[in-house]
UniProtKB/TrEMBL annotation:
This is Phosphoribosylaminoimidazole-succinocarboxamide synthase. It catalyses: 5-amino-1-(5-phospho-D-ribosyl)imidazole-4-carboxylate + L-aspartate + ATP = (2S)-2-[5-amino-1-(5-phospho-beta-D-ribosyl)imidazole-4-carboxamido]succinate + ADP + phosphate + 2 H(+). Residues 6-230 form the SAICAR synthetase/ADE2 N-terminal domain. GO terms for molecular function: phosphoribosylaminoimidazolesuccinocarboxamide synthase activity. It comes from the Bacteria. InterPro entries: SAICAR_synt/ADE2_N, SAICAR_synt_PurC, SAICAR_synth, SAICAR_synthetase, SAICAR_synthetase_CS. Coiled coil: none annotated. Its EC number is 6.3.2.6. Belongs to the SAICAR synthetase family. SUPFAM superfamilies: SAICAR synthase-like. Pathway: Purine metabolism; IMP biosynthesis via de novo pathway; 5-amino-1-(5-phospho-D-ribosyl)imidazole-4-carboxamide from 5-amino-1-(5-phospho-D-ribosyl)imidazole-4-carboxylate: step 1/2. Keywords: ATP-binding, Ligase, Nucleotide-binding, Purine biosynthesis. The gene is purC.
Length: 235
């Protein structure tokens, strides 16, 4: 059956379509933090993130990255290839910030000579804990080859994104990706890429991302709108 709600996420809902290999993602106006402990409706966020993520995934597809993105079909909706999500949040850090700074007592803003890749286990009941390669293998989430691919692909995507954001005057500090297995068993990039799951600092060090919500720094949608307009101006 098509148009059945298959999954209700914090920022998106997922529906079935007439094609069993295609799903519809509907971006919502909800912002959460601390694994949903703080939750707010922010009008216009869904439209902005759908546009931003669609634009970035189109560029990633064009650059030869295998992704789930098919097309944007409305202000809040896009079609994606159906995948079995790998339950890992793959975080890449170019610059110290957020939980890294907190965990290790390092000030924000120090550039890593080589970007750092981290895994978190996607499990709400466990609060998405930090997890290492050995844990990933023990839990049979991914094998050595798959772990290596996830890291390499994330670093490759970082190089593309860092370059695009630099061209519009934004520094890509860190971000989170999710991957999944497509119908042929191939690992492809899934989920979204928006200021909800990355950190972007402008030349003056202003936060142009969800830290505006996390740290109560002003209007989230005003900032996301600026990011969208800048991205649209990118060739
Ligand atoms: P962190 O510093 O809180 O670990 O976050 C690193 C990056 O990953 C940051 O850009 C936000 C993103 N992220 C998510 O998108 N979802 C999450 O659940 C977490 C923990 C981080």
């Amino acid at each position: 059956m098509s148009n059945q709600l298959i999954y209700q996420g914090k920022a998106k809902d997922i529906y079935s379509t007439e094609d069993e290999n295609v799903i519809k993602s509907v971006y919502k106006d909800q912002a959460t933090m601390l694994n949903g402990a703080r939750k707010e409706t922010i009008e216009g966020k869904g439209v902005l993130n759908n546009q931003i993520s669609s634009l970035i995934f189109e560029k990633l597809n064009a650059a030869g990255v295998a992704t789930h993105f098919i097309e944007q079909i409305s202000e809040t909706e896009q079609l994606n290839k159906k995948v079995d999500i790998i339950p890992l949040e793959v975080v890449l850090r170019n610059v110290t910030a957020g939980s890294f700074s907190k965990r290790f007592g390092v000030e924000e803003g120090r550039v890593f000579e080589t970007p750092i890749v981290e895994f978190y286990y996607k499990n709400d009941d466990l609060d998405d804990p930090f997890i290492n390669d050995e844990h990933v293998k023990f839990l049979e989430i991914a094998n050595d080859e798959e772990i290596a691919y996830l890291k390499e692909e994330t670093r490759r995507i970082n190089e593309l994104l860092k370059d695009w954001f630099a061209k519009i005057g934004l520094k890509l500090i860190d971000f989170k990706l999710e991957f999944g297995f497509d119908k042929d068993g191939k690992i492809i990039l899934a989920d979204e890429f928006s200021p909800d799951n990355c950190r972007l600092w402008d030349a003056d060090g202003n936060h142009m991302d969800k830290d505006v919500f996390r740290r109560d720094l002003g209007s989230l949608t005003d900032v996301y709108q600026v990011v969208l307009e800048k991205l649209k101006a990118l060739d």
